[in-house]
Design a protein that fits this description.
By secondary structure, the chain is of the alpha+beta class. Helix 2 packs across helix 5, helix 3 runs parallel beside helix 5 and helix 16 packs antiparallel against helix 17.
């Protein structure tokens, strides 16, 4: 049994197919066709909906891609679509502003843009172009052009106005808190970390479902249905960022959006990198633990954490162990985790939280694209001598990996051009990248060297021209 609110209407679904996406349920079962299917991969934003959940006694709204969301993931939440916004015969202020601002032509993408702008308004985003671009970066427009959309969004953020959702907030919270427990045996939803460990020990063949922004592509793109699923969504012990003595401990279910907001001061390079990580919809749902456990060679978080000497706290039943992230990946999409074992927390020691760490992503598009090469470089320099080097790359091998020979070329040597050249030459011994649709092997190796040179310029202030985010 899955229970949630569709706007203010309680919905109870029995024996729902665990592979049914919210997009297909809305369009086929509820005939809510305002939510469009554009790509079925979370890239275009035409299927954007808004999810409401109770956070510290208040309702919090977030945008999400309905194509990558399973109906079972709605349990305990409120689901809003574009059909819910109007109040009787009156358009919602967001809808009215976009319409009056000529921010729509064919209308196919418009519902998703409306829902992203609605979530942006509810979350009080800043009324500036950078914030609007950040919030709406996951919504493509095929014909209108972005200028009127951005201008309408700026107008929306400049005018705070109460709506029916504000008036119903207390009722919505009460309704959500009154929903029952999930009982679907095909999508188990344990509520504590102990219950999760016990559940996974009983079903070691099950897939763990965190945000699902990558896992659910198996359903929508590969057309491979999930078997047994275990959702981590209700395990609050896996969420949040806390300081324990001289280390930072991050729960595996901490979303990428939370990381970006809360680590802006602690690890500014990581926060800046997440500007280019997928879309706001994906960052709202995707988690740090899921990005690591996915073990993709082009996942952006893994090389960043490798450069910070991160460790993973793993649990299997009642047994726990800490594994350096550098030892976690053992092959293409393969890790050291045993059946029934999961990531509970990511640990970063203060000693590695250097302001020298830089994280740079090179991709064909600036936003919402997969890395061709991702560089994470972290050198400690004292009196002009490199005392410690942690350098990692994504997209250069079958796994995210440290460039150990490149690191060795730096350590104990002066931070100068001669050492830089030796470190660049060492990259060829560290990596033999492949050619694919994103980049050739030669391009990848040259870009990796260029990023080392960029870091050197950054550290030595040998800037003859301004260094941009693009390395060509």
């Amino acid at each position: 049994m899955t229970q949630f609110l569709l706007n203010q209407q309680p919905v109870t679904l029995e024996n729902v197919d665990p592979n049914l996406t919210v997009l297909n349920w809305l369009r086929n079962d509820r005939l809510r066709c305002g939510t469009k299917e554009g790509c079925a991969s979370g890239d275009c934003g035409a299927c954007t909906v808004v999810l409401g959940s109770v956070d510290d006694g208040k309702i919090r709204y977030q945008s999400a891609n309905a194509c990558l969301l399973l109906v079972g993931q709605l349990h305990g939440k409120q689901l809003l679509t574009v059909e819910d916004l109007a109040d009787g015969g009156e358009l919602h202020p967001v809808q009215r502003t976009l319409a009056c601002g000529h921010a729509s032509q064919c209308g196919f993408c418009t519902p998703g843009i409306v829902m992203s702008a609605f979530a942006m308004q509810k979350n009080g985003a800043a009324a500036d172009s950078a914030s609007v671009a950040h919030q709406l970066g996951g919504n493509l427009c095929r014909c209108t052009g972005y200028r009127p959309i951005v201008e309408a969004a700026l107008s929306i953020m400049s005018d705070s106005c109460a709506d029916k959702f504000d008036a119903q907030a207390a009722l919505t919270v009460a309704q959500l808190q009154a929903l029952g427990e999930p009982t679907d045996e095909r999508l188990l939803m344990p509520k504590t970390i102990d219950a999760l460990a016990e559940c996974y020990a009983r079903h070691p063949q099950a897939r763990l479902l965190a945000g699902g922004t990558d896992l659910n592509l198996l359903v929508t793109q590969a057309h491979r249905p999930h078997g047994q699923l275990i959702s981590l969504a209700r395990v609050d012990e896996l969420r949040g960022i806390v300081r324990q003595g001289n280390r930072l401990v991050i729960g595996a279910m901490t979303t990428l959006d939370t990381l970006q907001r809360q680590l802006k001061e602690t690890i500014p390079a990581l926060s800046e990198m997440l500007d280019r990580f997928a879309s706001q919809q994906v960052r709202n749902q995707g988690t740090l633990g899921g990005n690591i456990a996915n073990a993709s060679p082009i996942g952006d978080c893994a090389p960043a954490l490798l450069a910070l000497d991160a460790r993973l706290h793993l649990r299997r039943g009642t047994q726990t162990r800490d594994v350096p992230l550098a030892d976690f990946f053992i092959g293409y999409r393969k890790t050291v985790m045993q059946p029934g074992e999961f990531i509970s927390h990511i640990i970063i020691d203060d000693v590695t939280l250097s302001r020298n760490v830089q994280l740079w992503k090179v991709s064909k598009r600036r936003e919402d694209d997969i890395s061709s090469v991702f560089a994470a470089i972290n050198l400690d320099v004292s009196d002009g001598i490199v005392s410690r080097a942690r350098i990692a790359f994504g997209g250069m091998a079958a796994t995210p990996a440290r460039a150990l020979q490149c690191e060795a070329a730096w350590i104990g040597r002066a931070l100068n051009r001669e050492t830089l050249n030796a470190a660049c030459a060492a990259l060829a011994a560290d990596f033999s990248p492949l050619s694919d649709a994103r980049a050739s092997a030669e391009y990848r190796l040259q870009v990796a060297k260029n990023l080392l040179k960029r870091y050197f310029l950054h550290m030595t202030s040998e800037h003859l021209v301004e260094v941009t985010d693009y390395v060509r």
